Amino acid sequence: MDRLIEELKPLQSGLFGKDFLLTWERTEAELKAILKIAEGLKSLYESNCSTKVFQSGLAVSLFRDHSTRTRFSYASAANLLGLTVQDLDEGKSQIAHGETVRETANMISFLTEAIGIRDDMYLGAGNAYMQEVAESLDLGRADGVLHQRPVVVNLQCDMDHPTQSMADLQHLVQTYGSLENLKGKKIAMTWAYSPSYGKPLSVPQGIISLMTRFGMEVTLAHPEGYDLVPECMKNASEFASASGGSFSVSNSMEEAFADADIVYPKSWAPYKVMETRTELLRNKDHKGLEDLEQKCLAQNAKFTGWECTESLMKTTRDGKALYMHCLPADISSVSCEKGEVEASVFDRYRTPTYIQAGYKPYIIAAMIFAAKFDNPAAMFQDLIQRDLKRVHTIS
For residue 229, what are the CA distances in angstroms to 161, 203, 222, 304, 395? Predict the structure, then answer.
């Protein structure tokens, strides 16, 4: 813990008062600070040391899409810091009656320290909505409406899934020993077949935009036409050049898996399809959406061979690549007839994927912690000296 506090001291400045919306908006030092704070919070939790830095306050959550891991990770993170979670149900609020974003953002924020938002359904809209919420809070603070300004945390949007990709990065750091040890490691971010359509692009976009910043050799593989948002492709290429890593695109799953240290097979919908879907949703064209879904499912069915199999895993580095997934995975013969990964592969990596998911509560807590306290190292020292037990024990 002393080592971690010393490492945090030079990383304390940039995140205070800042929202966490896109990883590519944050400096490398700021990303490292999040990892260190998350590591510290996890260490204190496992040492039975209370990390409640708030005696009161709300952590508001707004989920515009289904969620299990991220929903409970956000609630766990809030509780870890001493905040009470309040879920905003848009259908039961005045939002359903036309209340503006500016008004809603301020009305839910009087005693709120954090707002977590998942809005990944509409390409070109999710991140824009989060930015609008953030700007509304800025105005509320400037006008004296709000005593304090909540931090906004992106729990997945159309562009990025930063709490996922940062948890994935933390998993890799813990697996390989350090960020430095990730340099030169090959990670294959590949499309994989799913019997459903419309899965967001933000996980693969988050992975290629983040892992390229730390000198990794990132290969993106997908069938022709399953492209990602051009901005994210450009980011990945530029980050790879700056970090000494590499970024390549392939239309072959076999090529991507060859000699890979890490594989991340995950389905997503094509960029152009998501653009069309957003337009149809906005126009409430239900017939058009049904037609698009059938067309996409038929298109997906052409690529059932894009599956993480035992034979493919044998082609990875020494046949022992780390399998990763954001979960839930489409497991062949288990959750579906044909899916992203063979059952035997997933079963072998079940525990590592669960451990991977387990970093997310600490990453979210670290994002809130860093935005609310300008000297994380000093806060950790105070928590250690205070030595309040998380769970009461009889001495």
Answer: 14, 12, 13, 23, 57
